[in-house]
Design brief:
single chain, 402 residues, alpha/beta, six-stranded parallel sheet, six-stranded mixed sheet, 12 strands
């Protein structure tokens, strides 16, 4: 008897759902926007949610016709007023991202908003400078403009924290205006009583301060201690002296914005929900390591060493920059620091070598060269003498106890 194969009932399969099409409206040429987008990506990697993300090729938001876009939702930078205007008529879900406001009525109506806490950003920088012993604090901001509402909010926060502090907005820099902008910034810095701590409203503005201090021959951080906001690696790479900077909670902002939109796409109402994200911390570097006042000779020497100490300079060149004899400068160092110019040069090179071993994959020979050691063997000898470990052991995590 032949048997017929039993036909299997077709399995009930859920129809394949297409990915949600989401437009990210940011200027990702800026570190703040890039890190928010990175946070969005981090959220998506942690879920099974599939999104087809629209990000323009040159990373700037193209807004022409965006309200008619046939997608499913937006995450957008509402610090840019043109984006809010472009999305005013959309019926798609929108999660707004931007700076916080002291006045609650300033937030966009009817949509969730994820904000960087402008007050806490400024407070963290302010408190860091106060703890460093600075008797006066100032703020270097940007000129008022429709797209700079976040800056005006930081100015309000600074005025609340330091009612006697001075605020300078400067000039919006460009190739044409650069020399004029630096000239006026130098004049402002020279007008401030010293020592002073200055909060730069962004790392880009902090770099202006560093350059202006160099032009004005003002020592950083002995006379002017500087803290920026953004912790931008690109800006860090453009400054000779390590820049202290507040780290915004941008990754968390991106993750939060993506989570809110995810919930909206699945029917959860979010209108009017507001989330304030605090700063992620402060990266303290040499620009804000203010110490007790030293004589003009020692201040100038230490400033010169911080700028050029890894470029093979010798004691004689430091003394020449200060404008005194080598023996006079050595005497000043012994009296005020209990040390020598050579020891200060060596300590600066050792500090950079430690940083490069911790934070990069550079070969030891390249580390020695960048840190200003004459040979790899000399760097090894200094590590063993000063830290009790070899550079290789230091890189593996054998850090000496403080």
């Amino acid at each position: 008897m032949s048997t017929q194969p039993v036909k299997q009932a077709p399995s009930a399969r859920r129809p394949q759902r297409r990915p949600h099409r989401i437009a990210l409206l940011f200027n990702a040429n800026k570190i703040y926007d890039r890190e928010i987008i990175a946070g969005i990506g981090g959220y998506l990697r942690s879920t099974r949610e599939e999104w087809d993300l629209l990000v323009e090729e040159d990373f700037r938001a193209r807004l022409a016709g965006i309200a008619q876009w046939q997608g499913d939702g937006f995450i957008a930078d509402y610090d840019d007023p043109s984006i809010g205007e472009a999305l005013a008529g959309t019926t798609l879900p929108v999660v707004a991202v931007g700076g916080s406001y002291a006045d609650a009525s300033s937030y966009p109506k009817g949509m969730p908003y994820v904000a960087t806490d402008n007050f806490l950003l400024v407070k963290l920088a302010h408190d860091h400078l106060v703890e460093a012993g600075l008797p006066r604090i100032a703020l270097y901001s940007v000129p008022p403009a429709a797209g700079n509402r976040w800056a005006q909010e930081r100015e309000k926060a600074f005025a609340q924290l330091a009612p006697q502090g001075r605020i300078y907005c400067g000039i919006q820099t460009s190739v044409v205006q650069w020399n004029s902008a630096i000239k006026h910034l130098v004049e402002w810095i020279l007008s401030l009583p010293k020592p002073v701590g200055i909060i730069a409203i962004t790392d880009a503005r902090a770099r202006h301060l560093m350059h202006a201090c160099m032009v004005a021959d003002v020592a950083v951080p002995e006379q002017v201690a500087i803290v920026g906001i953004d912790n931008d690696p690109l800006t860090q790479s453009l400054t000779r002296i390590g820049l202290s900077s507040v780290r915004q909670g941008t990754h968390e902002m991106g993750r939060t914005a993506a989570r809110l939109l995810h919930q909206m796409l699945h029917g959860t109402p979010m209108a009017g929900k507001r989330v304030l994200v605090p700063p992620a911390g402060l990266n303290a570097q040499a620009s804000s390591r203010h110490t007790r006042p030293f004589s003009a000779h020692v201040m100038k020497a230490r400033y010169y060493i911080r700028q050029y100490g890894c470029q093979g300079i010798k004691n004689e060149q430091v003394a020449e920059y200060v404008g005194v004899s080598r023996s006079t400068l050595e005497q000043c160092f012994r009296v005020e620091l209990g040390s020598t110019v050579h020891a200060a040069l060596l300590a600066h090179r050792l500090e950079l070598a430690q940083q490069l071993l911790r934070d990069t994959d550079l070969r030891a020979a390249e580390v020695a060269q960048r840190a200003g050691f004459t040979t790899l063997q000399y760097m090894y000898a200094v590590f063993k003498r000063e830290l009790g470990v070899t550079p290789a052991a230091y890189r593996r995590g054998a850090f000496p106890l403080p």
